[in-house]
Amino acid sequence: MSDLELSGIRKNFGDFVAMHKADLFFEAGKLTALLGPSGCGKTTLLRMIAGLEAPSEGQILLGGKDIASLSAEQRKFGMVFQSFALFPHLNVARNVSYSLRIAGVDALTRRARARELLELVQLADKGNNRIGELSGGQQQRVAIARALAQEPVIFLLDEPMSALDAQLRNDMQMELRLLQQRLGITTIVVTHDQREAMTIADKIVVMSQGRIEQVGTPQEIYHKPANGFVASFIGNANLLDGRATNSGVTLGDTHFAVAERGGFASGDRVTLFCRPEAVRLTEVAPSGNALKGMVTFVRDEGIAREIHLDTGAGHIIAEIPGSFNETIRIGDRLHAEFPVETLHLLPARPAAG
Ligand code: ATP
Questions:
Q1: What is the spatial distance between Cα 126 and Cα 140, in angstroms, rounded to a whole number?
Q2: Would the pTM count as exceeding 0.80?
Q3: From the CB of 11, is ligand 1 less than 6 Å away?
Q4: Homologous superfamily of 237-347
C-alpha cells in the first residue's frame, strides 16, 4: 500500500485555470472524496491522477516516486466512470476479465479471477449474462469488479452513483464503503453530492472554482468548516455577518459570546456560523446569545422540523425534533438561542453583488 501525494499541482486549459496550484495527500488505504459544485475541477484533478490529463505543473508521487511521466496504462490504477463504460458485446465475466486478457493472462487464471471478483461484488450467478440484462446497480458492480481485476494500487471513481436512483444510490454507497474497507485499497471518489461524501469518505477535499477550500474528516468539515462556502455547501448553515470583539461577536446591536475566537482581532469583519440543529427556539427570552425573530416558513419532515425566522441580524434556520404536541406557525414571534459551544467565527463573506 502506498500514499499518493500531489505536490504543487496545477492545470491550465489555455488561459483558463481549471486547478490552481495545490498540495494534496491521500493516505494509503483510505477513501477520499473530491467534493464540489459542477465545474470546480474535480474531474480534472482525478484525470491528472489517472494519467489521462497532464498537469501544467507539479508532481504526482506514489509511495514517494514521481509517476507524472507514466501513461494511464503504465499506472494501472482502477477506474470507474459515471457511465460505467462496459462492453455491451461481451458477457459479464468477460467484461470483468477484459484487462487481464489484454495483459496476456492465461484463460484459466482469467476465469478464476473473474469468478472471485463477481463473488466479491455479489454477482456470482451473472457471469454468463449479457450487460443489457443487468440493472443499473448490477452494471455498476460489474464496472467496479472490472476496475479491480488487475489489483490496482489506487482505485479512482468519477461520480460512480450519479446514474442510479436515490434508493439504489444509498445501497451502493454502503456497499462501496464496505468493499473499500475490506480491501483496504486507497480510493478517490469524485462527487458533487455532500451526503454521499459524508457517507463514504474518511477524508473530504472540498473544492470550488479550481481551488481547495478545505480538507478534513466528514465531522471536521461539517462542524468546523473553514469558510462560508464550505459551511453552506455541506448542508444548511446559519451565516450572520458581524464584527469580532474581545469575547465574541457583535451582530448589529446584539452581542454573542463564542467559545473560540480563532485568529480574529477585535474589530475584524467576520461571519458567525451555527448549524440549524444547534439553534434552540423559546417563547421566553434567554439570558444571552439570542435573537428575536418572526417565523416565515415551516417545513415538517416528520423526524424534524425546519423553522425559518427573520431576525434583526438576518434570516436564520432552526431544525428542531418533530413533535405532535407543539405547533409553530408562520407569524409566531420566537427567540432563537445559539449555544455558545456551537458557534464558530469564519472569515467575512465577500460582499454580495
Ligand atoms: P462536473 O461535476 O460538472 O463534471 P468538475 O468539477 O468535474 O465538474 P471539471 O470537469 O474538472 O469540473 O472541469 C473544470 C473546468 O475546466 C470547467 O470549467 C471545464 O469547462 C474546464 N475544462 C475541463 N476540461 C477541459 C478541456 N479539455 N478544455 C478546456 N476546458 C476544460
A1: 13
A2: yes
A3: no
A4: Nucleic acid-binding proteins (2.40.50.140)
